[in-house]
Every structure is written in structure tokens, then in C-alpha cells.
Amino acid sequence: VQLVESGGGLVQPGGSLRLSCVASGFTFSSRGMSWYRQALGKERELVGTITSAGGVTNYADSVKGRFTISRDNAKNTVYLQMNSLKPEDTAVYFCHARVQLRNYWGQGTQVTVSS
Known about the structure:
The protein is mainly β.
């Protein structure tokens, strides 16, 4: 299983970014996917989840209404669209999959929200 995130960077408050996570090594279309984030000195926290077909999403209260998770099963890719970004969204963002009772993480992509 391999998960590779991309799309992070430096953005001003109020700006937008779209993160991508390309998955391989398992049947992507049969697995729900999640995004997590970890700010410096803090525990990793769940940002949101999406079901295998993409029909249902759930979000942490802190990002609800600003972030959107979607997926393209033909491309084995899950996305995290982040709008109205705030300085407190600064963190390393990780893609996550649970396959055969094991947790898999990507290497993470840094998102920094600062003026």
C-alpha cells in the first residue's frame, strides 16, 4: 500500500488549496479514505472521511463548511479542497487508508496559512 500526498504550500488567510492523495497497492474503489492533520506540537486529528463510492462524507467541526473531500476512483485519487483557510489550519496533512486491519499513511504535505 502506498499513499502519496501533494498540493501543500504557503497560502494567505482566506485562501484556498487543493490536496491530492494518489493510492496504490489495494483496491481503492472498495475502501473509505480519510484525511488527517497534525500541527506542530499537537496530536494528529481527523479532518474528514469519505466512503468508498464517495457518496457520504463527514468532517470535523473545525473544518465543516470550508473543506470538501472528494474522490476519483478511476484515478485512485482522493482530494481535499480547502477554502477560507485560517492560520489554525496550518499543519501537515496526511492521507489515510485502513486495509486488512492495518493503518496506512502517506508521507504528509505541509500546509502553512500565513500572511
